């Protein structure tokens, strides 16, 4: 992993901030043989920008040059410290006298740098305060523990991606643990790793292949009726069209087993009535803006719009095979059944026998 070139990075950001919208308006995308804007290729959507704007930044939409320089310096220091901690753990693992847990996924897999920063203080661009819209009355927000250690009581369906409400069955676990839904959505949300998509085009369809989960969405461009409203899907039913240089994808008919907005350990309402509008807009050679809008009056009192830059990279997309559902889920449930078998005559379980006991761990 290479240190971030802070000076050049800051200069690029400062140069970008006042001119990006003008450049995007002036740019004309190359065309495919079918006359459509050419979006084909592998795109990286890694981002270190928070979804919501921190309270301390109030109505500040963009960071200043000094703030950007400070952020990059602290990020580089954090990366260095993390690598040093990982080296220490590796040394302990290799020493039989100081053996320790290998921990989780190591830094080799993590996207700790961003190919195209946007300088924004939040990914949310609407509402203008950079915060999630106010919820409608009675909407349930599910909370999980992304570490998977603490089980937070709740009811099915579990709509967040990481954590769970129990271990009675696979339906008690998060959607990513079950290898069903990831940060690749839709909509796309930058995660710790695997932040790539590949776009394919022909005359009548666009295919959006997500690295995380390796799920391919086939989007018809011709006008056609949606499937019956009674037929719902994890990724919804999508239709696309071009609006000048922008690919617009509208998706409906989502299952109510996912959230209107589903995050790693938070899930807001249900996607049953959600209209998801995604916009892929080329802004320069090898650059595009990805913008999605959640229009769901049943969950939010206002629409939610998120904007992330994407960068085309010269790389291949490799299959992401999710083995959590193949092995981990089965082992989690086997462990729970083993715990059930060790219930004492008093009906209580020993905390020493329960590695997932909430009394031993906090979120």
Q: Secondary structure elements and their pairing?
A:
Elements (H helix, E strand, L loop, with lengths): L5 H11 L3 H7 L14 E4 L20 H30 L29 E3 L14 E3 L52 E6 L3 E6 L4 E6 L16 E7 L2 E7 L8 E2 L3 E3 L6 E10 L2 E9 L8 E10 L10 H18 L22
Antiparallel strand pairs: 1-4, 1-13, 2-13, 3-10, 4-5, 5-6, 7-8, 8-11, 9-10, 11-12, 12-13
How is this structure best described in words?
The structure is a single chain. The chain is α+β, with helices and mostly antiparallel strands. The protein folds into two domains: 6-31 and 60-123; 126-313, no CATH class. The chain has four helices and 13 strands. The strands form two sheets. Strands 1, 2, 4, 5, 6, 7, 8, 11, 12 and 13 form a ten-stranded antiparallel beta sheet that branches. A hairpin with a 3-residue loop joins strand 9 and strand 10. The longest helix is centred in the N-terminal third of the chain and has 30 residues, at 65-94.
Quick structural gist:
The chain is α+β, with helices and mostly antiparallel strands and 363 residues long.
Defining key terms:
single chain; 363 residues; alpha+beta; 2 domains; ten-stranded antiparallel β-sheet; three-stranded antiparallel β-sheet; 13 strands
| Oligomer type | single chain
**Taking Cα atoms only, what radius of gyration do you get, to the nearest Å?**
22 Å
Number of domains: 2
Taking the alpha carbons of the first and last residues, their distance comes to 30 Å
Helical fraction equals 10-25%
Please, how many helices? Answer: 4
Relative strand content: 15-25%
* Structural class by secondary-structure content: alpha+beta
Question: How many β strands by DSSP?
Answer: 13
Average pLDDT confidence is: 84
**Biggest sheet record:** 10 strands, antiparallel
Order of helices and strands: HHEHEEEEEEEEEEEEH
């Amino acid at each position: 992993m290479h240190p971030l070139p802070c000076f050049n990075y800051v200069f690029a950001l400062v140069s970008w901030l006042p001119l990006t919208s003008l450049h995007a308006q002036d740019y004309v995308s190359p065309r495919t043989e079918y006359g459509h804007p050419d979006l084909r290729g592998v795109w990286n959507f890694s981002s270190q920008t928070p979804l919501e704007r921190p309270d301390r930044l109030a109505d500040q939409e963009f960071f200043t040059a000094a703030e950007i320089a400070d952020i990059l310096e602290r990020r580089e220091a954090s990366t260095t410290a993390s690598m040093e901690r990982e080296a220490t753990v590796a040394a302990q693992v290799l020493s039989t006298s100081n053996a320790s847990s290998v921990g989780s996924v190591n830094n080799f897999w993590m996207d700790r740098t961003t190919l195209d920063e946007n300088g924004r203080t939040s990914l949310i661009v609407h509402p203008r305060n950079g915060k999630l819209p106010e919820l409608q009355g009675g909407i349930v927000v599910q909370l999980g523990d992304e570490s998977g250690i603490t089980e937070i009581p709740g009811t099915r369906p579990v709509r967040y991606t990481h954590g769970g409400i129990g271990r009675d069955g696979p339906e008690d676990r998060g959607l990513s643990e079950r290898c069903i839904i990831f940060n690749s959505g839709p909509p796309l949300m930058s995660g710790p790793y695997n932040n790539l998509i590949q776009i394919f085009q022909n005359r009548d369809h666009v295919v959006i292949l997500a690295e995380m989960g390796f799920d391919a969405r086939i989007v018809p461009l011709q006008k056609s009726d949606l499937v019956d409203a009674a037929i719902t899907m994890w990724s919804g039913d999508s239709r696309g069209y071009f609006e000048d240089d922008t690919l617009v994808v509208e998706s409906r008919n989502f299952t109510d087993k996912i959230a209107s907005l589903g995050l790693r350990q938070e899930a807001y309402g249900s996607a049953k009535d959600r209209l998801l509008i995604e916009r892929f807009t080329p802004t320069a050679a090898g650059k595009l803006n990805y913008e999605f809008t959640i229009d769901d009056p049943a969950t939010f009192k206002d629409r939610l719009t998120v904007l992330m830059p994407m960068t085309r990279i010269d790389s291949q997309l490799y299959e992401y095979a999710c083995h959590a559902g193949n092995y981990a889920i089965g082992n989690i449930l086997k462990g729970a059944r083993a715990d059930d078998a060790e219930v004492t005559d008093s009906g209580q379980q020993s905390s020493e026998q329960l590695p997932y006991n909430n009394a031993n761990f906090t979120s």
